[in-house]
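Hello forum,

I keep getting stuck at the same step: I have a sequence, I want structure tokens, and every attempt I make locally crashes halfway through. Rather than fight my setup again tonight, could one of you with a working pipeline run this one for me? It's a single chain of 125 residues.
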Amino acid sequence: MEEIAQVYARALFDVAVERDALDEIRDQLGAFADAMHESHDLAVFFFSPYFSVPEKKDGLKRTVQDADPAVVNFLEALIERHRMPAIFRIRTDFDAMWEKERRRLPVQITSAIELDRTVVDSLGK
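Reply #2:
Ran it on my machine without issues. Output:
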């Protein structure tokens, strides 16, 4: 499953870069994955073999609105190929590629006192 997720994440990442919509597509993929994680019913619907591909595509249209067409096409491709269970790993791989592209590194700051919001914001920048 891991290799499959990497292939799908790379494909979506390449489309996002090509369309100059990397941040937007990352946010939308993350929002969909979060919704799947938070709603057991939604996950069961998209993961279950009991629902047909057309039913799942119809459910996707009802669930995902105003999304980038690349994200919708990507999610439809996952449905058609019965790869929706890989969505969480795909998101993780996509986020890793995004961080590398944006040259982001994880940082942890420890303070003896609670920091002001302005200090936290300036550290983030």
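The chain is about 70% helix and 0% strand. If your local run keeps crashing, start a new thread with the error log.
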